[in-house]
C-alpha cells in the first residue's frame, strides 16, 4: 500500500473513532438529561408533598422554645426563643398567600377543597413514561446538535432539541411523537465528509472537553440532596417520598404532644 493509501486508511480509522466518540457522548448526554429531569421532577414533588410538613415542624420548634421561655423566664431561654422566631419565615401577605390558589374565576379546586376540609388532590407526577423515554432517546440520537456539519445545521438542531427536552421534561409522550414525525419529515442530514486529520483530531479534543463538562454536571446532580435521595431508591422514588412523609408526620405528632404538655 502506498503512502497515499496508508494515509487514507489512517484518516478513515480516525473518522471512525470520531463517530464512535460522538455516539458515546450523545448516550452520556441522554443519561445526564434523563437524570436531570428526574431530579427536577422529584424536587418539585418533594417540595409540594413535604414542604408544609417541614414548615409545620419549624413552627412547632418555635412554639416549644417560646413555651419553655415563658415557663422558666430564663434570659437564655428567652434569647433562644427570640432567635428561633426570627429564623422562621413570616406569614405571607394575603396576595402571596393566595398566589397559585386563586384565578380569574375564583378559588382553584385544590384551595376550595382545603378550605372545606376535603381531600386535596396530590401533586401531579410528571415523570416520563418508559415509552416517552424510548422516543426521547431515539430523537436525541438522530437530532443531536453535535452531529451537525455546519453552523446553520447546528442552529436548527439546537432549536429542535430544546423543544424535545421541554416535551420530555413535561412527560408529554404525544408531543414527543409529533416531534419525531416532524424530524423524519424534515431535510435529510448531510453525510459526513471525511476531513483532514487535523480537523478530526480537533473534533476528538472538543468531544473530550464536552464529556468532562457533562461529567461535572452529572456529579453535581448526583451529589445534590435530591439526587442522593433518588439514588437511595432509583426504582421507586415515590415510595421513598411516602416513607419520608410518614416519618415527618410522626415527628409532627411528637412535637405537638410535647407542646401540649408544656402549655397544659
List the topology elements.
Elements: H1 3-72, H2 75-87, H3 94-97, E1 102-103, E2 106-107, H4 109-115, H5 130-143, H6 151-169, H7 173-185, H8 197-223, H9 225-232, H10 237-263
Antiparallel strand pairs: 1-2
Helix pairs in contact: 1-2, 1-5, 1-8, 1-10, 5-6, 5-7, 6-7
For the CA atoms, what is the radius of gyration? 28 Å
Strand-pairing-aware structural class: mainly alpha
Note the total helix count: 10
Rounded average pLDDT: 81
| Helical coverage, percent range | over 70%
Strand content: under 5%
**What is the helix/strand order?**
HHHEEHHHHHHH
Secondary structure tally: strands? 2
Would you kindly provide a written description of the structure presented here, covering whatever features stand out?
It comes from Streptomyces chrestomyceticus. There is one protein chain. The protein has 264 residues and is mainly α. Helices cover 77% and strands 2% of the residues. The chain contains ten helices and two strands; from the N terminus they run αααββααααααα. A two-stranded antiparallel ribbon has the order 1-2. α1 (3-72) packs across α5, α5 (130-143) runs antiparallel to α6 (151-169) and α5 runs parallel beside α7. The model is unreliable at 91-105 (pLDDT under 50).
